[in-house]
Amino acid sequence: MGCGVSSNNNVYPRPEAVTEYGKINGKHFVLKDGRVADVFLGIPFAKPPVGELRFEKPQAPEPWEKIKSTIKYKNRPIQQDYFWDRIQSGKSKSEDCLYLNIMTPNWNPSSSTKGFPVMFYIHGGGYSVDSDAKIPYENICK
């Protein structure tokens, strides 16, 4: 006697986008109403500010040939850990933390609008607390 499970993970193929530096692919997040948001996490917008680049003006990242997977949050900045940070984030800390997260609707706007509103969020914390993971993409997409 046996048991089998069938899964079709290709219902929504992974979203792809082209950046100035190369192609990226992300993941889909299905909202409660069935609409889908495209989520891209950890897109590099500068070279890691380590070694000779530490405390220097950010430099453009090196272009990449293969499609870069952007499905996970990257490192959070090195800063003081507070109790809730250790529990909530679960992310590593590093000076290599110059990454961008993008969430976008995967449906057309209504005919009465030209597009969607854009929210540009830079977390606070006075260079001592917080990171991009404080507000999960699931909450932003809602």
From TrEMBL:
Pfam families the record matches: COesterase (PF00135)
Domain Carboxylesterase type B: 15-141
Gene3D superfamilies: alpha/beta hydrolase (3.40.50.1820)
Recorded superkingdom: Eukaryota
PANTHER family reported for this sequence: CARBOXYLESTERASE TYPE B DOMAIN-CONTAINING PROTEIN (PTHR44590:SF3), CARBOXYLIC ESTER HYDROLASE-RELATED (PTHR44590)
Name this polypeptide is given: Carboxylesterase type B domain-containing protein
